[in-house]
Structures are given as C-alpha cells and as structure tokens.
Write a structure and sequence with these properties.
By secondary structure, this protein is mainly alpha-helical. The chain has a single domain, classed as 2-Layer Sandwich (Zincin-like), CATH 3.30.2010.10. It has five helices and three strands. 25% of the residues are buried. The model has no long low-confidence stretch (mean pLDDT 80).
C-alpha cells in the first residue's frame, strides 16, 4: 500500500471507531475526536500512542503491517476514550471493557513491533514534515 492510502485508511478507521464508541456507550465529557498524528520513525517499540487529545501512529509500522491497522487504530481510540474519564487508565478495566467487549477484539502482541530500518517512503514523509514545521516557524516569526 502507498503512504497516502495508509494514512487515509487510518483516518477513516479512527473516525469509525470513535463514533462507534460514543454512539454505543456512555458519551465522554468531550465528544471531539482525538487528533491523528503521524510518527516517522523506525521504532521497534513505539507503534502508536494515545492521550485524550490525540492518537499517534507509526507510519513505518503500518506500511509493513497493514493487516493490523483496524485493531491498532481501535486500540488507540479506546485509550483516548478511556483517558477522557480516567487520565491514567492505561490498559485498565475501562480500556479492556471497550476494546474487548464493546469493539470485539481479542488483542495480540503486534504492539511489540518488528521494524529495524526506516522505509524510504517514510524518510521522504519525515523530511517533508520537518520542512513544513520550519516554514510554519518562519511564518510565525515574521512581524
């Protein structure tokens, strides 16, 4: 799969799982979906990360393991949802209830990751992101 296709699929599944949770169980105090952020790293450990405000996804991992996209996105969205009620919930009771009982996933060890090097397409995306940030910094510093 291509980089843009993976990003589109992740964003679609992100929205799907968020709306699935808020329509099927107790609505959180803030119903705004968490923002989607991208990691451009060849990380063996960090596949994704979530807070109540954002979910980060490692593009390198998703490109090499597209079969885990739906489960990984649901995993992170459940973290974000649980964090709206209990900020330090981690893999606690609420998260387990959401992920296993409401969304129906059993859970796997895919979050350990197996990436050893950064893919060329992710390197290019990483450079483009750094350039965009630098341009934004320069624009903000102008009088």
């Amino acid at each position: 799969m291509k980089l843009r296709e993976i990003q589109r699929i992740v964003e679609d599944r992100h929205q799907h799982w968020w709306h699935f949770l808020i329509t099927n169980i107790l609505t959180p105090p803030n119903t705004t979906p968490p923002a989607v952020k991208w990691r451009y790293r060849a990380s063996k450990r960090i596949v994704a990360n979530a807070t109540s405000e954002r979910c980060e996804y490692n593009l390198n991992y998703l490109i090499e393991n597209p079969g885990y996209i739906d489960e990984l996105v649901c995993h992170e969205v459940c973290h974000s949802y649980a964090a709206r009620f209990y900020p330090r919930a981690s893999h606690g009771y609420l998260w387990k209830f959401l992920f296993h009982k409401i969304c129906g996933f059993r859970g796997t060890n895919h979050v350990k990751g197996t990436i050893s090097k950064m893919l060329p397409v992710v390197k290019v995306a990483n450079r483009a992101e750094k350039i965009r940030r630098k341009i934004a910094e320069l624009e903000n510093s102008l009088p």
